[in-house]
Amino acid sequence: MTRVEVRVDSGPWRQARIDRAQNAEFAWKTWSAEWPDAAAGEHSITSRAVDAQGKVQPAADAPEMVGKRTYWESNAQVTRKIQLA
Fold it and tell me: Which domains does the chain have, with CATH numbers?
């Protein structure tokens, strides 16, 4: 993985900062991103990885993800819901 990109709701993809303190090759990566215009309410935060060749981690509804039933089978993008006061 070369970079992580983050999207808030249906907005544009923005590059996140990867914490390289623990840089194991096949491990989860911690990242952070600025969100200066955050508004109160529920939001969807989606993250995706991009490798050195520019290959983007597939979305959960991408054709290659269809039929993946377990967490271990799927390497799809991750979307989380958050609530801001």
Answer: 3-20+40-84 (2.60.40.650)
